[in-house]
Hints:
By secondary structure, the chain is of the alpha+beta class. Helix content is 36%, strand content 18%.
Amino acid sequence: xxxxxxxxxxxxxxxxxxxxxxxxxxxxxxxxxxxxxxxxxxxxxxxxxxxxxxxxxxxxxxxxxxxxxxxxxxxxxxxxxxxxxxxxxxxxxxxxxxxxxxxxxxxxxxxxxxxxxxxxxxxxxxxxxxxxxxxxxxxxxxxxxxxxxxxxxxxxxxxxxxxxxxxxxxxxxxxxxxxxxxxxxxxxxxxxxxxxxxxxxxxxxxxxxxxxxxxxxxxxxxxxxxxxxxxxxxxxxxxxxxxxxxxxxxxxxxxxxxxxxxxxxxxxxxxxxxxxxxxxxxxxxxxxxxxxxxxxxxxxxxxxxxxxxxxxxxxxxxxxxxxxxxxxxxxxxxxxxxxxxxxxxxxxxxxxxxxxxxxxxxxxxxxxxxxxxxxxxxxxxxxxxxxxxxxxxxxxxxxxxxxxxxxxxxxxxxxxxxxxxxxxxxxxxxxxxxxxxxxxxxxxxxxxxxxxxxxxxxxxxxxxxxxxxxxxxxxxxxxxxxxxxxxxxxxxxxxxxxxxxxxxxxxxxxxxxxxxxxxxxxxxxxxxxxxxxxxxxxxxxxxxxxxxxxxxxxxxxxxxxxxxxxxxxxxxxxxxxx
Length: 578
């Protein structure tokens, strides 16, 4: 506090956002406590869920600013960027060369912006034992949900159905310096001092220039959640007050769909844009949210969160270079020397794979064993051993991505499993057996459970029965007509909600994950779109009788029923035994 009181010119709280207008627009928002918290943050500055003394050995002042700059160009960029930040009112005036009491400074790096030759100033707040991110409560910075393509696709399909025969376009509006619109509290400003003019020597600091960073920054663990809180409320205003119901947001990009012939003139940029894009830009102008012309884009095919999206063909495609980069990174991760990676490396990998699931949604099982291995671990740079299951899952993921076209067809999602399936099957299991019934063909199948394997795990047998039915459907060549653009539609009913859940989310604990992987292999290989749907036990009596080997009961319910046996896939059983 003494440093702040004696050097008031180095500390300042401000934001370009018009707080009064922001608050007034949220007057009817139902979560009043959340709104009040965000408005207060904009007024007094963000406190990033931090404990500045998480252990007794954390020093009062810590200077860890030195890091070898890779090139003269990057050194010059950092110095110039600091001056620019001062001009923008986001950094304090320069001081130095030494830190004042209570201050922390960690290395700054110049990082290329995605899909650009431009650089971005990033404060490495994870560098060193006493780094700022070690003060931030990690559990409090999680939970911000971004609108992926899997959120946007149903909205796009709905918009298309409301405008049949019309040519569609996509638009994307980008906030300029998103994190940098959020002020941080002066007591946290103490902890994020930026240093430029760092030379080759760690000890000679005579040329070092220091700047107090007044805003949330790239490199802080807290910045994404803080920004998501502000932008989430802005999106609420757009959707609930301006009726922009097809709007989605991914970090600092808002995107949506419109009609090719619905354009409006936007005076500040002196050009036409899609009408809803103009409405959003005008809202941002009213709220004081900064943006610039070159980042406001639209077209009949547009890059959305890294994927080429065509709203008229209803496809999303992973560009070839991104696909190659993904495969290379996964392969290198899985084949690292000594088969060890840090938790930070694991988190980067899962982030990249989760991003790719926008076009590879069936490959979610690749993450099951990885998440199990990461569970309960908190030390970012502690090594984690890559076990055989993880390596196999990553190889499975890599193989499918390599073989894929990288194109995802939205229309495959838009069908009713109750009325539009090519075939319907009912499944059930007991602790003594499994059974499934194909009503359209008057066929029933039974299988006794094998030995003591998972004997007391009814959930396992229920899931395995669904897989057995899927295997039968493929082997019967009933999906002979299917293509990636027009897959066969299979609905399987089960009365076990856990089974419905894992096939719906494609996420399961490691014991059950081989079932999902085997199902995905079949679905991709034979172009089968599977929906597993819950049915009450009272409506699943035929499959129930088959699972208990009550064959006479099953045939009394379906007089023409022909009953045979089936065998579950050996690969699944073997993987589970291991």
